[in-house]
């Protein structure tokens, strides 16, 4: 990790903070090609009510728009790009990034439950011959602190609990005193 890497990762963390401030899971990312930041994304699942609007997908759409307005082919740009993201991309996002043949991914912290680069799935799971240079867990403490801060507060978009709560069984020969 060099100074430029940290600058781009810091931008991703700033976007993650914005997402968290908007009651979204705090994940942010930046696509960089030849040192130039081309596209940005942050989670917008709750705002859009679309479960696929992860930071990486939002940024890919922005990168696609940039390519269209600059007469570029996204398939030719991505093999030269680095993605800086605060959390290891999930399986959905990682699969897309393998398919699009991105050059490099730098992520802040591993995603132990859904990580699609190393934690849960990897290149072999996608039957990909493409190798992505992966620099992981480069700022895990900061990423985890952001996630903990988000999950410690009440999420207004959290679905209502639908499971039935079992009443405790009464022991025989006991009396209730309410």
UniProtKB/TrEMBL annotation:
One of its GO terms (molecular function) is zinc ion binding. GO terms for biological process: tRNA wobble adenosine to inosine editing. Signal peptide: none annotated. Keywords: Hydrolase, Metal-binding, Zinc. One of its GO terms (cellular component) is cytoplasm. The keyword Ribosomal protein does not apply. This is CMP/dCMP-type deaminase domain-containing protein.
